[in-house]
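[Q] Does anyone have a clean structure-token version of this?
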Amino acid sequence: MKKLLVLQNIEREGPGLFLTIAREKGFIPEIYNLSLGEKLPEAKKDDLILIMGGPMSVRDINNEKYFWLREETDFLKRAIKNQISIIGVCLGAQLLAHILGGKIERLKDESNKGNKPELGWSEISSIDEKSNEEINLLIKEPLKVLHWHGDRIILPPQAELLASSDRCSEQLFKVGEFIYGLQFHVETDGLMIDDWIKNDKKFITSGLGKNGQKILKRQCIEFESNTLNKRVLFINKLFDKIILHKKTSI
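[A] Here you go.
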């Protein structure tokens, strides 16, 4: 039986919509909260690994405060070698890029070149709407999503960039047919975002100023439910593409 193996790096960043859709696609979900010391699973060929986000960074792989990151990185290296399908979200995408030879750097404010996170709801869109049919299947039109990150990804040479936002080019990429990195969040629901807003005040202020929490609450009311159907469709397409390529590779 194929499983969705969810690697959680912090309690508040769970799989959300991915969980519902995985069940619809026939996956048995298993969630591993690595920050609580839960042991990593054994991944098999038909499984799909989903790496969630967190406030830590690729820079923290050897930081004892985030003791699980080194083991998580080694686990992902083995999964890549064994051609197991992987979706990385935010931190998860950054870990994948790092393992594959890319790197991360601080996201800059173009006006003053200082460090400034990308926070809140804005659109991602295909980088080339005409040349790549696969991109159009995932991002047929601009998709409004939630951003919550202070780093950008410098992609490894074998990665293909699929979509960008105005502030950060590296929003959606793939490596081969089984690995996808999402810098943005499509998995969220209102309660999840409320928790982030409540517990991430310092980071929010660094990106949106002292009224940042209020700004995000207003955006959540405006966009969370209105974008739900498109976000669900995107995740469905992503699962279908991975499942299809996995079948044709056997």
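[Q] Thanks! Anything notable?
[A] The domain at 3-249 is CATH 3.40.50.880 (Rossmann fold).
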